[in-house]
Design goal:
Serine Threonine Protein Phosphatase 5, Tetratricopeptide repeat, 0% strand, mainly alpha, 9 helices, single chain
Length: 162
């Protein structure tokens, strides 16, 4: 598996490849694994997603999640699926998925990524104040100063009636 994943990672790292070539190479690598391999499905989805083929990516993400992924890939697949379906106009479902990831593990490695995509979905849903609040709360811990102030203001933004 490590060699296979290293080869997949090499495709993703090769910035000279156009999106179509990324899809072709990822698909070729995926064919080395069983047809229902969740990780291969996830990689195939990501290749299509990054090429702007959201409708093709959606069902592959859903298959990968249904088949079962390790925790990190499950989180990544959920965030990526939510971003994809937001682009396809399924904002309510995207919000549900992203809210779940955002709230699930506040100290997880991908919490800030979940916050960023949750904020984007909130903007798409016409909730820019909540989006700003979520984004600022994700940013605040990374500031060298004013963390407490930014967190306080971020909470106020979300709580103010509009």
């Amino acid at each position: 598996m490590d060699d296979w994943q290293n080869r997949v990672d090499a495709v993703w790292a090769d910035e000279t490849l156009d999106p179509g070539e990324v899809i072709r190479r990822i698909d070729a690598l995926a064919r080395e694994r069983p047809e229902d391999d969740a990780i291969a499905l996830f990689e195939r989805a990501g290749a299509r997603d990054s090429a702007g083929l959201e409708a093709d990516a959606e069902w592959l993400y859903r298959q990968a999640l249904a088949t079962g992924l390790d925790d990190e890939r499950r989180t990544r697949a959920t965030i990526q699926l939510a971003s994809t379906i937001r682009n396809l106009g399924k904002t309510a479902e995207a919000l549900d998925l992203l809210r779940g990831e955002y709230e699930r593990d506040p100290h997880g490695d991908l919490h800030d990524a979940a916050a960023a995509f949750y904020a984007l979905a909130l903007v798409s849903n016409g909730e820019p104040e909540r989006a700003a609040s979520i984004a600022l709360q994700a940013l605040a811990p990374h500031l060298s100063r004013y963390t407490r102030s930014v967190n306080g203001y971020a909470r106020e933004i979300a709580e103010e009636p509009r």
